[in-house]
């Protein structure tokens, strides 16, 4: 056995509790005993149980009452109904209410051994199937992976189904953390190109000097270090979809190059004069206001029209608060499985905090908050104290929007280290783990200035 | 590398007793006492026979309640010896199982076993005396193993493997695997320390 299984024997007769628990303990399992359904439910709130053996006749809510409660609150726990007076009616009722088996006392020892082995194997298979199903859905990136039942999301799902089949370029707009890449994957998974690759590129994460060779590839000897030819991501995306994430970060030069590829359906590797066929469907995404960027001249209008044949807007989480409970439940299930923790649900007061929170980081922030709660929870049900830091007035996590893009985070971090070291470049470079030249370049690139120039140790070089 | 086994120190009498409940054959008692002494390496006392306590008889099932017998042994014999194994030729059951070959609580002071069903062969004929005694030793070791906190073993053919029928009982060996032996001696050593300080 890979882990100790946990059982509970619920019976008002002491002798039955003792006999059955002694038998189960000999298997090396952890066994709890309860003499009523109410006591069993209390224990279940504290601990996870694989299998419950429940007697039908008990004072209080009784065996069937407990069975119903367990199936409602802890659906992954298996329940075996036991009775001294087995009738067909009882057995049918037990199975109708979701019991996993029905035993009449006394049991044949061989039958009990087989039953327990069968139940534990069933449990293992259910867990494995759930895990594999999640992995397959995530791998295929279907619409199943996007969760939401709000009108805005239902409309978005409809639009995805309508536009996925076409070959037109799609621009996905939405705040950071709203799941733009998931939408792009869903479009790909529902398109005619679903058999081809889905190639995501985060335009903000690839350095300007590398992006050309990454996207178009290069020939051997085209520059120092090009010791062998390399396929670009456009080639890799052949017959599939190319996803340009953070397309607003793309340089004007690259916009021209990509525009040419989109118009001519041909491209050249760096250092090559041989044209190559480009056959991909372009999906782009940004959280930026591209119209503003066009107005200030940092984004080309012709490139914008080319990538924005169809545009989709992913609503931020605060505009679809009704989706928060189902998203939170989904994340609880996922992280409980991934981190192997026995957490089942979120109670009402905790859910209210989640629903009321503004979610500047959208679904990604919710995902992280729930992951933290699952990992730190000592109970099966997550309570309000796990999310107390999200409530107004609790300064643990600032509610204001923190920098979200990698570049914004970099700028904020460099600025704070420079301020801490009074703009002493050598000291700041040491803290940042880069050399002075690199730090000077970053300061120039991001046009960083001391907050209080009098205190600084340096004069910022002209750009 | 020479294999070293943890060995408990030699002890005075009174640690483990075998108690015949009703009339039990001398060869059965002797082989059980010898096997336990050989494997546990502690002296085993063979007690005078006692009748099965009448209140442990379940008239409706025509069987004796193993749980009730264990409770009786714990209440009446735990002052005489550290662990007591009762042996009977009567059929045993417990409130939830139709029959048991033996019964013990994990880490409990007493265990009970029955050889009532151990004669049965695959056909109508009983098994040989040799095979019967082999089964008796396996059940005795298994139940005493539970009193030293050994759970069911899931590796190989160790005597601590669960056996719910005679075929499963025959399939296992009449000794402990290396792991169970190690755990048993650790548990025995702890028990001896407690016994000495008591």
UniProtKB/TrEMBL annotation, chain A:
Presence of keyword Aminoacyl-tRNA synthetase: no
Alphabetical UniProt keywords: Activator, ATP-binding, Cytoplasm, DNA-binding, Nucleotide-binding, Phosphoprotein, Transcription, Transcription regulation, Two-component regulatory system
Full protein name: Sigma-54-dependent Fis family transcriptional regulator
Domain Response regulatory span(s) in chain numbering: 6-120
Sigma-54 factor interaction domain: residues covered: 146-375
GO biological process, one term: phosphorelay signal transduction system
InterPro entries: AAA+_ATPase, AAA_lid_NorR, CheY-like_superfamily, Homeodomain-like_sf, HTH_Fis, P-loop_NTPase, Sig_transdc_resp-reg_receiver, Sigma_54_int
Lineage top rank: taxon: Bacteria
Residues that bear 4-aspartylphosphate: 55
Annotated GO CC locations: cytoplasm
The species this protein was found in: Desulfomonile tiedjei
Major subcellular location class: cytoplasm
Molecular function terms from GO: ATP binding; sequence-specific DNA binding
Compartment(s) where it occurs, according to its Swiss-Prot or TrEMBL record: Cytoplasm
A Pfam family hit: Sigma54_activat
């Amino acid at each position: 056995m890979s882990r100790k299984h946990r059982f509970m024997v619920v019976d008002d007769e002491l002798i039955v509790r003792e006999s059955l628990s002694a038998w189960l303990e000999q298997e090396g399992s952890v066994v709890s005993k309860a003499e009523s359904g109410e006591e069993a439910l209390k224990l279940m709130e504290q601990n996870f149980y694989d299998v419950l053996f429940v007697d039908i006749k008990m004072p209080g809510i009784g065996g069937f009452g407990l069975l119903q409660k367990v199936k409602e609150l802890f659906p992954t726990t298996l329940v075996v109904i036991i009775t001294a007076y087995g009738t067909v009616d009882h057995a049918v009722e037990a199975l109708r209410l979701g019991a996993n088996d029905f035993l009449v006392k006394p049991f044949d020892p061989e039958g009990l051994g087989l039953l327990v082995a069968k139940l534990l194997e069933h449990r293992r298979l259910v867990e494995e199937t759930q895990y594999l199903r999640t992995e397959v859905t995530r791998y295929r990136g279907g619409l199943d992976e996007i969760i939401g039942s709000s009108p805005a999301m239902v409309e978005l799902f409809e639009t995805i189904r309508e536009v996925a089949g076409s070959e037109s370029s799609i621009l996905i707009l939405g705040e950071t953390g709203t799941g733009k890449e998931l939408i792009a994957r869903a479009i790909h998974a529902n398109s005619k190109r679903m058999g081809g690759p889905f190639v995501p590129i985060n335009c903000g994460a690839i350095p300007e000097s590398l992006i050309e060779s990454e996207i178009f590839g290069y020939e051997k000897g085209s520059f120092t270090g090009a010791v062998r030819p390399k396929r670009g991501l456009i080639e890799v995306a052949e017959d599939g979809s190319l996803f340009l994430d953070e397309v607003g970060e793309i340089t004007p030069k690259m916009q021209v190059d990509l525009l040419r590829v989109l118009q001519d359906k041909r491209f050249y590797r760096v250092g090559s004069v041989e044209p190559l066929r480009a056959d991909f469907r372009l999906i782009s995404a940004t959280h930026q206001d591209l119209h503003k960027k066009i107005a200030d001249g940092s984004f080309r209008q012709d490139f914008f029209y080319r990538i924005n044949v169809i545009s989709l807007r992913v609503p931020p989480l605060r505009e679809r608060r009704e989706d928060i409970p189902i998203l939170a439940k989904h994340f609880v299930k996922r992280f409980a499985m991934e981190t192997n923790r026995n957490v089942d649900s979120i109670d009402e007061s905790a859910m209210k905090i989640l629903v009321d929170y503004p979610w500047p980081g959208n679904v990604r922030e919710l995902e992280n908050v729930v992951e933290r709660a699952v990992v730190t929870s000592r109970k099966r049900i997550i309570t309000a104290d796990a999310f107390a830091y999200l409530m107004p007035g609790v300064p643990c996590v600032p509610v204001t929007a923190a920098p979200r893009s990698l570049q914004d985070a970099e700028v904020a971090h460099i600025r704070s280290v420079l301020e801490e070291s009074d703009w002493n470049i050598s000291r700041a470079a040491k803290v940042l783990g880069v050399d002075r030249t690199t730090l000077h370049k970053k300061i120039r690139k991001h046009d960083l200035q001391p907050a209080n120039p009098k205190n600084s140790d340096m004069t910022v070089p002209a750009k | 590398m020479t294999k070293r086994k943890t060995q408990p120190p030699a002890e005075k009498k009174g640690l483990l007793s075998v108690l015949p409940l009703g009339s039990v054959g001398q060869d059965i008692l002797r082989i059980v006492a010898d096997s336990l002494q050989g494997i546990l390496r502690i002296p085993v006392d063979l007690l005078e026979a006692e009748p099965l306590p009448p209140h442990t008889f379940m008239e409706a099932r025509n069987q004796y309640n193993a749980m009730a017998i264990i409770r009786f042994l714990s209440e009446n014999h735990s002052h005489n010896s550290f662990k007591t194994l009762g042996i009977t030729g009567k059929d045993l059951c417990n409130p939830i199982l139709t029959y048991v070959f033996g019964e013990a609580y994990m880490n409990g002071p007493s265990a009970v076993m029955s050889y009532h069903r151990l004669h049965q062969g695959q056909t109508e004929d009983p098994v040989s005396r040799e095979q019967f005694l082999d089964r008796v030793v396996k059940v005795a070791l298994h139940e005493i193993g539970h009193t030293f906190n050994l759970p069911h073993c899931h590796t190989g053919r160790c005597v601590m493997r669960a056996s719910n029928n005679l075929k499963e009982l025959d399939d296992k060996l009449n000794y402990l695997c290396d792991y169970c032996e190690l755990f048993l001696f650790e548990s025995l050593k702890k028990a001896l320390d407690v016994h000495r300080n008591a």
